[in-house]
Structure formats: C-alpha cells, structure tokens
Task: structure prediction
Amino acid sequence: MAEAPVLDVKQLKTSFFSTDGEVPAVDEISFSIRKGEILGIVGESGCGKSVTSLSIMKLIPQPPGKITGGEILFNGEDLVNASEKRMRQIRGNDVAMIFQEPMTSLNPLFTIGEQLTEALKIHKKMSKRSAFVQAVEMLKLVGLPRAEQIMKEYPHQLSGGMRQRVMIGMALSCHPRLLIADEPTTALDVTIQAQILALMKDLNEKLETAIMLITHDLGVVAEVCERVIVMYAGKIVEEASVETIFKNPKHPYTLGLLQSIPDIRNKQERLYSIPGNVPKPGSITHGCRFAARCPFVHDRCLAEDPPLYKLEETGHTARCFLLDKEGVSNG
Result:
C-alpha cells in the first residue's frame, strides 16, 4: 500500500472580495506531495502560485481574501477548518515557509540568534542553551561560516545570500515535514542561486523534507524538482514529471514557457516571449483562459473551458482540447 501524501490539496478555491464582487485567485486546484518529494509549481506572475502557498499556510489576509472551497489535507488533517491556535502550532513546526525576500521576513530589531532560537523554544520547548546550540548547528548545516558570530548579528549586517541561508536554516530548524519555498532565489545572483538550490536539494535528501518550490523559472525546476505543476490564471493547466514536461509538453502555455528559455547553443537575435499578458483574475468567465494568447486557438476554446485530460500511460495531465482524442481520459 502506497504511503499517504504529506499534503493533499483537493479542489482548493481562494477568492478575494471587492466592490466588484468575488474574484477567484485560485480556482479549484488539486495536487499532492509525497514525503521527500520536491514539487515545482511554475507560471508567470499573477497565475496564483503564491496565493496557493499562502492558502496552505492560512496566511491569506481576511478581509479581503478567503478560502471559499475545497480541502487542504496535511497528514490527513483538514487545515481549512483548523483554528488559528492550531495553525500557530503547525506553522514553523510541521509546515515551514521561505519567502521571496528575506529582509522583509527577518525582524531588523532582533539578532539572528534571537530569531532562530524563538521557534525552537516555542515549538520544541527547548531551554535557552539547547536552542542556541541547535540554532548554531542549523547555521553550519546551511553552509554559513562563523555561525556563533552570526548569531549575534542583525539582518542588515548580512548579505542577501547569507540572509536567505538563515531563512532556510530557520525554516528547517524544527525539522518540518513540508517546506514551502516561494521564489527563494529571486533576489540572488546566479552563483548564490545555484548554491541555495544545491543546499535545498541536499537538505531534502538528508532530512526527507517534502518541498513545494514555487518559481517562474523552469531552469530552477529542471535543477531540483522531480514533478512539476504549471499554473495559469488560477488553474492547473499541466502536471507531469520534470523529464516529461521538458521532453513532451502538452499544453501550449507550457510550450511557450519552454520556448522562452534562452539557449546558449543557438544564437538568437530576439528571445521568444508569449504574446499578451496573464488575464486579470475573474475577467474570463467562459472558454479557455489561455485562448487569447494561444497559437492553436479554435472556436471551441472560446466557448468551453477545457477539463484536465489524462494520458493513461504516463499519468501526464493537461487542460487542453488538443488532447481530446483516443488514449486520453477526461478527469
């Protein structure tokens, strides 16, 4: 019998409410993550990736946002119905998150040591001394030199790469079962980016922590992920193993993202970009949400919203009428 997933999201819907009414930012998405797996979620800005992660952590600002449907099952417990008290027990302890910009996540008024030991004292009930020793070990684990000295320093005294390593160390200090990393390398230069990705992969293997990696960069996905979900306008439009997505993409949007990756082997005067922009959430009420930007669009795409089609042989799914043929199931 297969082991139950660490996280199982079912038909999740998160909306924001304004004077114009309900605007769905995440629209009935379903996916799961197994123990020790690294799952990539990709898409342009505005596709619903970050709202998905904030929904899982129950950090959607209310108002104007609200989870309006579905389930978020973590170890079988539905977090949608969990109280704020219960979520405080889960956050940082069982589920941890790394945000895009560590300078906005670290408190400038407290030392690195004070911030690192706080979670250990709260969640693990450690003494001040034990928490200090554990925190120093975590800083060493994430590859930071002079760990004891860094414990006494403030966030502004560290470089961007060092702050991001501190954030990863903080997130992993309680050995969470699930780590959500939202664009963890966006503000870093290429060399530091590679080091942070290698570090996350290494810690994933050592601690068997499941990782949900949110990014717009398919190069990052190719580097560390095993499986990838492609999101567009609040919906999942394709899901498969990383190898399958790169070799045989089925959705025109995924194909466009792959064509946008620069190839150093071929000299190009102009890089490819997908024409148009991601639609404003809630602006498309019928038809395929990618139709206005799709090179393969036809009349059916403008009238009907395609379901997720599944290729039975590989389990590869895509939301496109191009797959409406034999050997593919609707589901």
